[in-house]
């Protein structure tokens, strides 16, 4: 498994420093990875979702410490490069939300009907 692309989206918050999207083997993407400034410096937090009981559960994560270390090292190096290159910070809107908004609108700016796939055009005469 190889990381083939990393996109860093710095944000302007006290502890949250960036959202990151990682592509593996040019065929699998993991979005909403976070770079966080904690008590012991920067660390990477995997994407998670809130459960009904208020706790969080990772939706994607490495299965061993070597893989976690490799991913974290590459993400933090990409984050440092983004800062050095002057990649502009965003407020708090995650890049995936912006992309979802863009995909959810057709050419006229309207949202598709419920259940419609915005990437699929209906067949002629259907």
Structure report:
This protein is of the alpha+beta class. It has helices at about 65-85, 95-105, and strands at about 5-10, 15-25, 30-40, 40-45, 50, 55-60. The protein has a domain at about 5-85: Stage V sporulation protein G (Arylsulfatase, C-terminal domain). It is about 25% helix and about 30% strand. The strands form two sheets. A four-stranded antiparallel beta sheet has the order 1-2-3-4, with helices on one face. A two-stranded antiparallel ribbon has the order 5-6. A hairpin with a 5-residue loop joins strand 5 (about 50) and strand 6.
State the separation between the terminal residues, measured CA to CA.
43 Å
CATH superfamily caption of the domain at 3-87: Stage V sporulation protein G
The average pLDDT value, as a whole number, equals: 80
Rg, Å, rounded: 17 Å
Determine the CATH topology of the domain at 3-87: Arylsulfatase, C-terminal domain
Spans of at least 5 consecutive residues whose pLDDT stays below 50 are: 98-126
**What proportion strand?**
25-35%
Structural class: alpha+beta
Q: Please describe the biggest sheet, giving its number of strands, its sense, and whether it closes into a barrel.
A: 4 strands, antiparallel
Write the layout of secondary structure elements.
Elements lengths: L2 E8 L5 E9 L3 E11 L2 E5 L2 E3 L5 E3 L6 H21 L9 H9 L23
Antiparallel strand pairs: 1-2, 2-3, 3-4, 5-6
Structure at a glance:
With 126 residues, the chain is of the alpha+beta class.
List the main descriptive attributes of the protein structure presented here.
single chain; 126 residues; alpha+beta; Arylsulfatase, C-terminal domain; four-stranded antiparallel β-sheet; two-stranded antiparallel ribbon; 2 helices; 6 strands; globular; disordered C terminus
